[in-house]
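Q: Hi! First time doing this. I have a protein sequence and I read that you can turn it into a structure. Is that right? Here it is:
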Amino acid sequence: MRSFGSLLRAVGLFSAALSFASVIHAQQPVLYGTPIALEKAKTVAAAALAEAEKNNWRMAVTIVDSSGQLVFFEKMDGTQLGSIDVSMAKARSAILFMRPTKTFDEGVSGGGGGLRILKLPGAMPIEGGIPLIENGKIIGAIGVSGAQPKEDGQCATAAAATIH
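A: Yes, that's right. Below is the predicted 3D structure, encoded as structure tokens:
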């Protein structure tokens, strides 16, 4: 007959295994899905542009598909020309690394080991790029540039919220 101590150890090990399994499950990456369609990309971009217009910001908006290829681009009149390439880089960074560019922005801002981000090819450490997730899969990404990084992020977030 097993001792009470052995039973407690067995329950403890089982509990730890379940806990570890749930952590592993929670860390499963989001996968790439079917590429965003042009009409949906236009709708997403329109939401970003509406947020920019509401705040009187001039923005460039890029939508890429799940392979990082350009699907849609629009630049508001009066937007600085440098924002064109920056919006594209933000969208590509968000799709390539499956995370918002704000993550890289925060890493670099923290200094120390976070500065390694500057050596990642394609990583844009400026807020404003967000993966577009539909039904748990990344279908594309948006990149917004033209104002301050936080404002770019605000427009990108408003746009990403249109995906269900």
